[in-house]
Amino acid sequence: MRRVTMGALMALVLFGTAIQADEKAASKKPPVGEYKRTDGKNSVVLTISSDSIKLSVDSPGLKVKYETDYAVTSKGNHLYGRINKVTEGDKRVDGDVFGFDYEAEGDLLVVKNWRGSGAIGFGALFMNGNYKKGAK
């Protein structure tokens, strides 16, 4: 009887630990989807897939489109990446790195503390703010 009780207790502890690990892993997943932010005449679209981001900025005097690779920190609240393809705009940013803190909940993605190397660092002027998922 004692062995059965100990076995059941061990199974419960291991099962509970596995559930906690799955919940933690889920919270570290990137905020996959298409997010849009419009501020007056400025429009920013982030299309985040499991392994890349397509970034598009359309503003008076500035129109750029980038493709990037990226990773998410182990805490799941900071994303960082590298521009690996410039499809429209200044080619000199190719290879620049960037990063930002984020909070994702439902259809809302909040980008804050944008920073980057070279010209991409100026993205803070456009990138910080609230994005709506699936907005057209």
Q: Can you tell me about this structure?
A:
It is a single chain. The chain is an alpha+beta fold and 136 residues long. Helix content is 22%, strand content 49%. It has helices at residues 2-27, 124-127; strands at residues 33-39, 42-48, 53-59, 62-72, 78-88, 97-105, 108-116, 129-133. It has an eight-stranded antiparallel β-barrel with strand order 1-2-3-4-5-6-7-8. β4 (62-72) and β5 form a beta hairpin. The chain is globular.
Please bin the fraction of helical residues. 10-25%
Strand content: over 45%
User: Helix/strand/pairing class, anyone?
Assistant: alpha+beta
Q: How many DSSP-defined strands?
A: 8
Helix and strand arrangement:
Blueprint: H1 2-27, E1 33-39, E2 42-48, E3 53-59, E4 62-72, E5 78-88, E6 97-105, E7 108-116, H2 124-127, E8 129-133
Antiparallel strand pairs: 1-2, 1-8, 2-3, 3-4, 4-5, 5-6, 6-7, 7-8
How do you describe this structure in short?
The protein has 136 residues and is an alpha+beta fold.
From the structure above, extract its key features.
2 helices, alpha+beta, 136 residues, eight-stranded antiparallel beta barrel
